[in-house]
Amino acid sequence: MKNIMQFDFLVDKEKNTLTIRREFAADRQLVWDAHTTRELLDQWFAPRPLITKTKSMDFRDGGHWLYAMVEPEGKEYWARLDYVKIQPIEKYTALDGFCDETGTLNPNLPRAQWDVTFEDLAQHSLVQTIVSYRSLADLETVIQMGMKEGMTSTLERLDDLLLKLKK
């Protein structure tokens, strides 16, 4: 039986934000590495049954991560994360958006700022992600697209990966 870990998914329609707080049974360095290393991201950053495929990643201020979430049948959903500011093992800020395989953003789908912080909790760690959208319509679009369900599944995959990495 898995330990019960904190998982909050809070919607603030006045500020057009999602706040996702998730506790992990691993130290902060390992959780940081899982969020910032291409080889590890490819093992967990997609809801089941999709997988992640990185095309390019340059984890630094001004860098980016271009990746696809791929269905078992092969259909690809491309996204681009542009890293704005990185403070190693503490936090990073990035702009997230849907795009094509070349990284050209889709102006018809929402783009958001992700502020991700990493905190020690005794033998565990806590990741807080605040996702800010330009408008209520953008926020509601991602909620309708299944953001909560997708994040729940994706973070469960991270739990599984962290257990394997700790052995």
From TrEMBL:
The record's listing under InterPro entries reads:
ASHA1/2-like_C, START-like_dom_sf
Q: Which residues cross the membrane?
A: none
Q: Which Pfam families match?
A: AHSA1 (PF08327)
Q: Which domain of life is it from?
A: Bacteria
What sequence ranges are listed for the domain Activator of Hsp90 ATPase homologue 1/2-like C-terminal? 26-162
SUPFAM superfamilies attached here?
Answer: Bet v1-like (SSF55961)
Entry's family note: Belongs to the AHA1 family.
Q: What is this protein called?
A: SRPBCC domain-containing protein
Organism annotation:
Chryseolinea lacunae
